Amino acid sequence: MTVNPVAPIWLLAVVGLALAAMTVWQLVVNRRRRRLVILWSSRLLMVALLLVIAVRPTILGEGQGPSASGGLEVYLVVDTTSSMAAEDWDGEGSGSTAAPTRLDGVKADIDSIVRDLNGAQFSLVTFDAVAVQRVPLTSDSSAVLSAASVLRQEVSAYSRGSSIDEPLDLLSGILLDAAAQNPEQRRVLFYFGDGEQTSSAEPQPFDQLAPYIQGGAVLGYGTADGGRMQESNGIDERFFGEEQVPVPTDTPPPSYIQDFSGGTPVEAVSTIDETALKLIASGLGIVYEKRSAATSTALATTGIEVGDLFADDGKPGTVTELYWIFAIPLGLLALLQIVAIGGAIAELRPARRAS
Asked: Where is coiled-coil annotated (predicted)?
């Protein structure tokens, strides 16, 4: 048996506890009035039945849905913290025109890797303050390319320091589930980042992921001299749907993230930390490559074979919903409430005439 709640479990619990608390309070207040005790007891039972119906208990039938085997699973893990907006990827900007950022380089490299490994299955994970699986594992490479093309840095106001191990727990869960479902499948992982650790916590090693992957690369972005980073409010005013709108010539220069550590604010500069990136690569048992706009991703994908993917439509079993069983007594109790309320209204009419 499983459940398929109509709302998050925590929300159902909060609403259920609030309703239950109200009914219990009424029971205590009216404990000497037998009729009201019966009514409020039935209402408490109705709350319990509603909660059971809301979590939708379900029995899954025997069978197996669509599945895929063989081929290659590719996990793309992208750092989207503010440091990835550093303008030291390629060239220099001036005035209102920003220089290419590290994230621009990541997008170009993802496009190249996906095309080099055409035919594989891909998943896209990003991380800043939290890690998120943007695209679950799919053989639709266009979905991954589309999602990667619109990646943006985190909102500057919400930045609380970056940690290079932020995606570790999420990746552990994803890879563990994938290995359990298809233990013979081959998997590779590409980590895109600059290695900058501004969080005070010591980053955790990536060794725990090594048993689940058979290749990939850690790709480093940035320079030793570093680059300044534009502030982000979460909205790219130049981007509307699929059309790129030219920036007006009278647009003021972009504002950059400030560093207040020295008292007087100055433009913050982010530099690459190759030592940290190499430690990630070492823990995963894959290669590290420092990226630049002048080189290709061919080295990172060398020796990775996509192979053939075999799909099975499967034969899903029937699903049996059980909520209706609890809806029957709920309906009877609701009918009891209607009768009781009708009786109370009928009792009020003679009282009104007498007054």
From this structure: none
Could you give the count of Cα atoms lying within 13 Å of 271 in the half-sphere of its Cβ? 6
Provide the domain limits for residue 17: 2-61+318-354
Task: Please indicate, yes or no, whether residues 294 and 325 belong to a single structural domain of this protein.
Answer: no
In CATH, what number is assigned to the domain containing residue 191?
3.40.50.410
> Which tokens belong to 307?
């192979």
Q: Measured between alpha carbons, how far is 289 from 195 in angstroms, rounded to an integer?
A: 12
**Concatenated DSSP letters for 135-181?**
EEEES-HHHHHHHHHT--PPPGGG-----TTTTHHHHHHHHHHHHHH
Sheet arrangement for strand 73-79 = 131-138, 121-127, 73-79, 187-193, 216-220, 287-290
Do 198 and 166 lie in a common domain? yes
pLDDT at site 176: 95
Please tell me the predicted confidence (pLDDT) of residue 238: 40
Cβ-count burial 34-58 (b if 16+ within 10 Å, e if not): eeeeebbebbbebbebbbbbbbebe
253 and 232 within one domain = yes
Low-confidence ranges of the chain (pLDDT < 50): 64-67, 93-96, 237-244, 247
224, 272: one domain = yes
